[in-house]
Fold this sequence. Notes:
Chain A is an all-alpha fold. In chain A, 78% of the residues lie in helices and 0% in strands. The radius of gyration of chain A is 21 Å and the shape is elongated. Chain B is mostly helical. Helices cover 66% and strands 1% of the residues of chain B. The chains are: A mainly alpha, B mainly alpha. Protoporphyrin IX containing FE binds next to helix 4, helix 5, helix 15 and helix 17 of chain B. Chain B: InterPro entries: Cyt_c_oxase-like_su1_dom, Cyt_c_oxase-like_su1_sf, Cyt_C_Oxase_1, Cyt_c_Oxase_su1_BS.
Amino acid sequence: MAYTVEGKGPSHIGIRMSNDAPPSHKEEARAQAEEALFGFWVFLMSDLIIFSMLFATYATMTHALAGGPGPKQLFDIHSAALETIALLLSSFTCGLATLYMRYDGSVKKTLLWFVVTLLLGAVFLSLELHDFIAMAAKGGVPSRSGWLSASWALIGTHGLHVTTGCIWLLIMFAQVAKFGLDPLVQTRFMRLALFWHFLDVVWIGIFSIVYLLGVIS
Amino acid sequence: MIHFLFGELGYNALPFYSAIATVAASVVVLGAVVVVGSITWLRGWRALWSEWLTSVDHKRIGIMYVVVSFVMLARAVIEACVMRSQQAVAYDSPGFIPPEHFAQLFTTHGTIMIFFMAMPFLIGIYNFAMPLQLGARDVSFPVMNSISLGLTSAGAVLMMISLCLGKFSTGGWTGYPPYTELSFSPGVGVDYWIWALTLSSLGNTMTGINFAVTIYKKRAPGMTLFRMPLFCWTALCISILMIFAMPPLTVATLMLAMDRYLDMHFFTNALGGNMMNYVNMFWLFGHPEVYILILPAFGVYSETIATFSNKRLYGYTSLVWATVSIAVLSFTVWLHHFFTMGQDGSVNAVFGIATMLIAIPTGVKVYDWLLTMFRGRIRLSVPMLYASAFMILFVVGGATGVMLANPGFDYQVHNTLFLVAHFHNMLIPGLLFGMLSAYHYWFPKAFGFRLNEVWGRIIFACWTGGFLLAFMPLYIVGALGMPRRSQEFFEAVYQPYMYVALAGAALVFCALASMAIQLWTSIRNRDSLRVFAGDPWNGRTLEWSIAAPPPEYNFARIPKVDSVDAFYQAKQQRTAWRAPDEYFDIPLPANSPVGFLCCVSGGAFGFALTWHIWWAVVVSALVFFGSIVLRSFNRDTMRIVPSGEVQETEENWLLALSETPPVANEAMFTTANRGLVREPV
Ligand code: HEM
Ligand SMILES: [Cu+2]
């Protein structure tokens, strides 16, 4: 049987590598980065199923109020709109950060925009926490009705994801401090960015289906 | 304070409420003591730790998966025998098992067979064989692979602990609410079930991701998707099924957990809960799951039938498309599991027809296998025996499946033993026989010696005979209306069939015992069964082109592939087993304790949640995530096998290979087989 020449990997995926790294290392790092990114896409697809189950459950439970408070009494659409703005902005800054990372290579600018992303994430989370507390104060606790269970679970799962994203950002800052913005750290940032945009998309679903439809109906 | 430390766990959790429970728990404890004792006696802890528990080598992880599966198989078969004995004496009599205990038995039996026997078995076999068939050195994410193993094992351990502390769920393997809600099942049983399932399904999701990426990214150069062995195609399909079908189960069990722990109302009777949501999500997972169980067997049979017929697989492309369409269709039929739960007749009709459609690609496969055998040089090896039994029995099971797909018929027999007969008819010849033939087929590759042939045939006879006796009668009593899951019955006509079924269960038990004996004698006589040369069956795919057992790096040089059955073709053209002109250093993933830590902390997490020991919940979660985060700071994740070492290993093997006398085709099952077979003329 014929054998292959070792170390020939697939082509580029947009990661900057310093020019002094030996070529074989570069190829290997590329191949690994590509696998990692592809794997992460697949994971996101799986995660999307989790959200779609939660959405479906929510949809079937819109009328399961059991005499308890409903969306009109409980939702603060202004706060939800602010959350949306914060999250959308954070997606934008996250995009800026990755662009700087890929095409500029400036550690400072990259980090700056990731820090802004983190802050916006924190704003989003505090607003959401505030919403939850306000809902509970009005009697909208998850144990009150099927609809409330479904909304808390859906919004809460998204919130937990954003929390995870924020912690992940903090860990990445520690990694930059330790390793600099090397290829491995970069691929991790790329995955984090994918995750962050994904959460944005899910939030748009939540905002329109849960909040907007909730207050209209 | 005591409550803080131990949660709900107290003396009354100990299994002294019934003699059977006490015996079962003692067996578990004794087994654990024996294992720990013998490892200590053999001074094996260090080796166990450094060569197995922390290993990220796909071959070793695969083997560990299969070990888990065998342990769980033993338990579940014994439970099946106990249930069969109960029903044999249960005519108009309470028998020797009270109803609640009987309910625990069918729940643990079903849960274990599906999640802790079948899934680890097939994942283990794929883990071992698939990267070798692809010409890869490992899966894409080796550490994640060992975390998956850790999570599945943690679930299995939780199942075993549940025998000793507290009582298990009585809700069946499906765990339907509202029965499994707190108001009807207040004990810890359902919680055990929830966390065992959640742990294992998270592990399985990660396995799916890992396998799919491996197949897309790690194939040897030249191995296009349509040059992959069919076994790898089934791996791809089940990975996709796992990626998309495991999350609904995770969501369903976690929502049930939220109902039970946080007083929510997803599936309760009161306050707007809707149990149909559970049923839909469970079967949105459950039906693809049955194809996750069946497709691997299809893959194995496609390999073994081709190998032992000495022919290229007939209709390769049609087999691929049949596999893919089964995978796709499997997402469109989940409703056939609850035809009787109140939806419109036309909805039932749609799902009934969709279900019947699946019979078409499956039929295509059976014809392809038959035509592969047609005019082949068939050698009745153990895997070939299983394949032949499968083709007959599976068609019977498929036919009853098409019957059940008709909602009108289903109304008559749902919830009877007819259904139980049907799904065992699919799962035993389909899943279990497939996995057992994989075990016989790849064992020599994994360990370097063959399994004893005579015992192999005895095991086959016991399994097939036992299956026929245990389940054919159930079709009849099911059609006569005997409900499933009944601890006692009052119709005299059922009784004789129950005796026959008991005899079947006894034979199955003999099969289990024979498996232990076979392993024992094969290990003892391993020197006469050695096949170091590596190709004992005249194989066709890449895994047979290397030594048995394979070196840790699998391939000294990654082979180049230009056809299906590349290795067989190379043998024909006399280009197989060529020493490469040059050897290189080979980087391999280094061992890592993360998988083991995840196993321990994941198991502790499930246990603590089950017993409401909140401090332990927090601690174990911190350990779990902490170990993963710490791991991400470790840059020393690779290990280099120096080219000199590779060269020495390879040259040793090539030398042995050149001195191995090829055995005649007819003498393949004798001790003359040293891992090289002469091509029949
Ligand atoms: C080894 C031979 C086996 C025997 C003798 C056996 C026997 C039984 C019996 C007696 C039951 C209870 C039936 C009832 O509801 O009255 C049962 C249920 C079940 N078995 Fe098996 N079984 C065997 C193998 C398997 C295998 C290989 C699998 C799957 C891979 C399996 C999966 C199940 C499931 C899912 C249930 C349903 C549990 C429930 O009702 O929730 N069994 N089996
Ligand atoms: Cu089904």
